[in-house]
Design a protein that fits this description.
Layout: E1 5-12, H1 34-45, E2 47-54, H2 58-64, E3 71-74, H3 82-99, E4 104-111, H4 119-129, E5 136-141, E6 144-152, H5 156-162, H6 170-174, E7 179-182
Parallel strand pairs: 1-2, 1-4, 2-3, 5-7
Antiparallel strand pairs: 4-6, 5-6
Length: 195
């Protein structure tokens, strides 16, 4: 029996106050948008479809991904913190699951401000954690928790209920025995907050 597929979720709604502009509009040294890097990491790492959550400067950010065959959703309440973006993204994923009744088992979540988290990290985490509806796991970097995070579909209602403020799924994941996947040999996993 074939393992269920994974859906990807990029959280990219914040204003990037410390950065001075939304991180969804940032580019790397070669001019590639961070949004493209995050989408490609998920897609090339094993996700069959990617949903991108936008908020601040959403029109400009959406223009960057128009040709990328992703689902874009907007977190109208993005200023309330990461949980607003996460909730908007998970609701969009649920809509995708209804529209495309394929056998998806898990969501792989990453943030737009992790430009060094590549497809190799995503693939390793998916390989170690799996994509069953019951799984929970995340990348760690020298033992520090990071992204991507894998959440089996069975956990989505609990994650949405527990998400609050800028904590995202942290509270829900804390005591549930998630699989940790060391990835420091592939990336730093550090979010970029300033130029």
């Amino acid at each position: 029996m074939t393992a269920p597929s994974a859906l990807g979720l990029v959280l990219a709604a914040g204003a990037g106050r410390r950065m001075g502009r939304p991180k969804a509009l940032m580019t790397d040294d070669d001019g590639r948008p961070w949004l493209h890097l995050a989408i490609d990491a998920l897609r090339d790492g094993g996700c069959d479809h990617v949903v991108v959550v936008l908020g601040a400067e959403a029109d400009q950010a959406e223009a960057l991904v128009e040709s990328m065959a992703v689902t874009v959703t907007r977190a109208e309440d993005w200023a309330e913190g990461m949980s607003a973006s996460l909730t908007a993204g998970l609701r969009a994923l649920q809509g995708h699951l209804v529209e495309h009744p394929r056998e998806f088992g898990a969501v792989v979540i990453t943030l737009v401000d992790l430009p060094d988290v590549s497809a190799r990290v995503v693939a390793r985490v998916i390989d170690k954690v799996g994509t069953d509806p019951s799984v929970l796991g995340r990348a760690v970097y020298d033992g520090d928790p990071g992204h991507p995070v894998v959440i089996g579909l069975d956990h989505l209602p609990g994650v949405v209920e527990a998400s609050e403020g800028d904590r995202g799924a942290r509270e829900y994941l804390r005591d549930r025995g998630l699989t940790l996947v060391e990835s420091a040999d592939l990336a730093t996993g550090q979010d970029v907050d300033s130029l």
